[in-house]
Description:
single chain, Amino acid/polyamine transporter I
Amino acid sequence: METNRKLLRSLGLGYVIVVVVGNIIGSGVYKKIAPMAAELHSSGWVLIAWIVGGLITLFGALGNAEVAGLLADTGGDFAYYKKVYNRFFAFIYGWSLFSVIQTAAISSLAYVFAQSLNSLLNLPELLPSMGQFSIGGIFYPFEGFTVKLTAILLIIFLTLINIKGILTGAGVSKLVLFLVFSGLFLIVAFGLGSHQSHPFQSFDFGPVSQAPVTISTFFTAMLASFWAYQGWASVGFIGGEVKEAKRNIPKGIVIGVFMVIAVYLLVNVTYLSLLSIPQLEQIYKSGNQIAAVEAVRSFWGDNGALFISFLILITTLGCTNATILASARPYYAMAKENLFFKSAGSLNKANTPANSLIWQGVWASVLVLSGTFDQLTDMIIFAVFIFYGATSLAVFILRRRMPDAPRPYKVWGYPIVPAIFIVFCMVLVFNTIFTRPREAVLGLILIFSGLPVYWYLHRKKQK
């Protein structure tokens, strides 16, 4: 019977690393250097922002790894918060995943995939007469409808693949990741070896404009780098399907994040050696150019632009798939606790949470219609760092509450490393409220939209 089905522990360490890296490497490695250049006006400071972003991500990942090693279960941080804090906070986190963090990540990745496909095939424009239709003058659902519809179709297609089983979805991610790494290393090798490359330009700290680099602009620029690093915690969501989860999840997180940091530094040094800061700022202002495409075009011409467009297509396909695969598991775990729609708590014949995947796909498709790529990613980073800080705080709480519990992994540099990460999360959240108020307010609205849902579910349970 359906009620007797359980998630199967079928993923080893190799697949855990694939899920970690596959959830991280998406559109950010190709696009986000341009908005960072527009904020910092200096190649040296852009590179520093990537390095600091990587280190801060690593600090957060180390804290998460200790908590995962102690409490690993399906739902990731939802399962941790339920044990460390309370059911209400766990629900708010899980609802935030559904309303903005993970679904908006799926939407924005699918959106970039659709943009790349459109640039390659020049798809016919759909509903151009509806482009100026707006909801409250904020949302323009039919603007660029061809790209948005393509993104929605991708979400539907990948959701159907993952309904067939986790090994099917993880296998797709593994193949795509191999292609992505091969493509990125080709770019680094040929890019740094080309006569247009100027590697020392990557370390120029002199601004090309009169705008000074302030703490606020540095943090704003790092919103872009954090989007590129976003996704590493998603592996915790599939804790109930990982062999020796309390050992393999911490290992997978640390190995995966180190791999991504190394790849990002190599790739971005290559971009900065090929494109000047004024060129990157112009790419950002254009709104329809991608930094990676222009960098590869500089040494491979139009054929290079075609190659990188295909690579972006494959990368965003893989990252969208990995995000869909992992993200549906918290809603399944919530439904089993009567904290989400009941239908999401069932498994199909392939032992996958099919209904949870469908709920996720529907809302992600709605978000595709709601906004642009950069709006969605800024909302995600603002929301997710509230909870990243809560997970690092859990390291301190569990050390005091469960001092003698066996810990397969202990965070390096305790208590300094998790404390630095918590402070950083607080500064980033408050800085976003002041520098990106619209995205912050929309993020908060989506987070707290779960309050009436919690009240309804709580009353239903009491009755």
